[in-house]
Amino acid sequence: MTAHGTRAGEDAEDLDVEEVLALVNDHGNHRPAPAPRAETDGGRTPDRPDTSPRSDRHRATPWPDARAVAERAGRNAARTARRAPVSVPLEAALGLTLATPLDALTDLPSFDTSAMDGWAVAGPAPWDVRDEGILAGHAAPTPLTDGEAVRIATGARIPPDTTAVLRSEHGRTDDKGRLYATGAVAPGQDIRPRGQECRTGDQLLPVGTLVTPAVLGLAAAAGYDSVDAVPRPRAEVLVLGDELLTEGLPHDGLIRDALGPMLEPWLRALGAEVVAVRRVRDDAGALHRAITTSDADVLVTTGGTAAGPVDHVHPTLRRIGAELLVDGVKVRPGHPMLLARTTETQHLVGLPGNPLAAVSGLLTLAEPLLRTLAARTAPEPYTLPLRDTAQGHPYDTRLVPVVLRGDQAVPLHYNGPAMLRGIAAADALAVVPPGGSRAGQEAELLDLPWASGGIGVCFT
After folding, report:
1. Cβ pair 61, 330 in contact under 8 A
2. How far is CA 123 from CA 146, 177, 222, 274, in A?
3. How many CA atoms within 13 Å lie on the side-chain side of 285?
4. What is the DSSP string of 369-416?
5. Contact 90, 225 (CB under 8 A)
6. CA-CA distance, 206 to 23, in Å (whole number)?
């Protein structure tokens, strides 16, 4: 850690993301996802699709397994890339993960301070009150003698030989200006002694801690100007499609692009640094150039993952020799999503073109991938009973937008693959198993980053 030129994180240069991830796991702050279950289809597993002639019968990956594959892909890429921690000013560190412990650089408080507005008093009452008081930020005051008091503000330094602080509402003065207490005065009352919160060198927070607003405040109080953190994974968005408008009303078969404005802030909420949002026409050569010239850690494409006449994602991935880790997921909406390893340290998340289907892909594949690259801990799973019946798919998991009302989750309407009206009002997505869930049945919930009260509420 770097602060005021002192204790500048001497070991940070030797610590890489792999070690951070290992330390996070060792401290119990992160639960690795279970390894995907092998499928009995010619020895194929979910992260290594069948490349035999029978691959046209490729079965999509079960939804929980797809998330596990994406998490493992992020962990493997982090180990391979061995990205060194970065020193980040406090004002830019929100949402990052600590790569070195936060150790106190000073005692907190660094001197005895008053916990209240009132008087610093010495000895028993009554007390003669000094003419000049003591304010926070002033130099060390002169000692008090028995029978003496001085006005003091919250946070001001306590004069030597002070017995206690008498709160303003607990004191009265007589016509001669002498101070009396209206109740008992205990030694040390309303004094914060030096080092009450911590001593220099105490570990305040371990490696793997997410930098929240409170962490920023603690770091500043402890003397830091910057922290050593795991760098954000760099993401680039490729918006595919000739039919998309960037402004105005739909016309002549053209429609507004809903994903371009949505994906950049959403990916930032998931911990990524979005380096570019590029629009790519429906042309195989243009997509090939966009993918092969990107140096982002994660590429996110929109649309083009099916097998239509202008769906160029699969052919382009085959052309560049990418490894398909997930090729279709047993989830609705979003079935044709995919995850590919384009290089040893770069992955591509292919989102379906329909807006809610793309959201499903974000939370299924992009979230666990980016989370592990950023060394963030996995959110604790939780469930709530559904207030109403949620219709399911016969064979696949279904993700349904819900609002949280008390101790229940209420499924929302307008939850078709092309609709955003439901998710725009939602607090979370309910994970509905094949066949559906009845009213009152517990459902696993995936919080939306801005609705959970967590760090994702900050998009900068």
Report:
1. yes
2. 5, 17, 33, 63
3. 0
4. HHHHHTTPPPPPPEEEEBSS-B---SSSEEEEEEEEETTEEEE-S--S
5. yes
6. 9
Of 290, 300, 366, 298, the closest CA to residue 329 belongs to: 366
Closest by alpha carbon to 39, among 17, 64, 20, 59?
Answer: 59
Pairing outcome for strands 164-167 and 191-192:
unpaired
Length of the chain: 460
* Measured distance CA(303)–CA(210) in Å, rounded: 33
Q: What are phi and psi of 68, to 5 degrees?
A: -65, -40
pLDDT in 10s for each residue of the chain, 460 residues? 333 333 333 333 444 556 666 655 544 444 333 333 333 333 333 334 443 333 433 579 999 999 999 999 999 999 998 889 999 999 999 999 999 999 999 999 999 999 999 999 999 999 999 999 999 998 889 999 999 999 999 999 999 999 999 999 999 999 888 999 999 999 999 999 999 999 999 999 999 999 999 999 999 999 999 999 999 999 999 998 777 767 789 888 887 878 888 899 999 999 999 999 999 988 899 999 999 999 999 999 998 888 878 889 999 999 999 999 999 999 999 999 999 999 999 999 999 988 999 999 999 999 999 999 999 988 888 999 999 999 999 999 999 999 999 999 999 998 889 888 989 999 999 999 999 999 999 999 999 987 644 444 433 3
User: Is the bond preceding 126 in cis, omega lying within 30 degrees of 0?
Assistant: yes
Distance CA 404, CA 385 (A): 10
d(CA 455, CA 432): 26
Quickly tell me which residue has 């629009």 as its tokens. Answer: 279
Q: Please give the structure tokens belonging to residue 275.
A: 């380096």
What is the pTM (predicted TM-score) of this model? 0.79
